[in-house]
Target: Aldo/keto reductase
Amino acid sequence: MNNITDIQGTFKLHNGVHMPYLGLGVYLANNDDEVVDAIHWALETGYRHIDTASIYKNEQGVGKAIQTSIINREDIFVVSKVWNADQGYETTLKAFESSLQRLQLEYLDLYLIHWPVQGKYKETWRALEKLYHEKKIKAIGVSNFMQHHLEDLMSTSEIIPMVNQMEFHPYLVQQDLIDFCRQHHIQYEAWSPMMQGKIFELSILDDLAKKYNKTVAQIVLRWNLQKGVITIPKSVKKERIISNADLFDFNISDEDINYIDALDKNHRNGPDPDNFNF
Model:
């Protein structure tokens, strides 16, 4: 079982890179003081993992936050993603360089294919392999890839993805996919762990929150970590960023982990990886 110790703890990827298992997501954070402040608060709290994407339109703000932080660049795990319109071999190489320029960084810690665009993701992956061999990226992975996408990619790829970032929350567990990824040493990662805020409208976790004297958000995030899933809750509020990291003074029992797992409805808040049109 993964050892969950503190806010800067890591899970080890199959190439030996250590990836912090708690990060800050910046989806929908404005490319100005909002994203800069959020990242500064996160880094001050102890976070060492920031997740952005070219489509979020805030890479410049993320870069500015890192440049102006008191934390050294090499101590921050920075993730971005290639967008669908940029997929393909040459266009991915260009898109990566553009992301680096916006971020004002020399390298990325992790670069992901954002969605499995049919007919393009294999060429996109070839570009990521090239960038990885050139040491411009420390780890490469995918996002929103179902098992059949992964099997198809791995049938021709030189490198197995190190990470698969998926929508993951109590209503969408996809245990079979988690198991498949684990079997192939692909690190599972959650996006939208709070169901885009909808988790707070449900009373299903109130009893567990009371039992452990924690917030519903803290219960969900701790469940992520105990399942060996890296998690990147998004917030631009200082108190929420701090609260989301208060996860290391309690342990959810196996019985309660199973209870949360059993809430699974195979319900997506985001798009279906098998049927998206962007």
Summary: The CA atoms of residues 29 and 170 lie 24 Å apart. Residues 89-103 form the longest helix (15 residues).
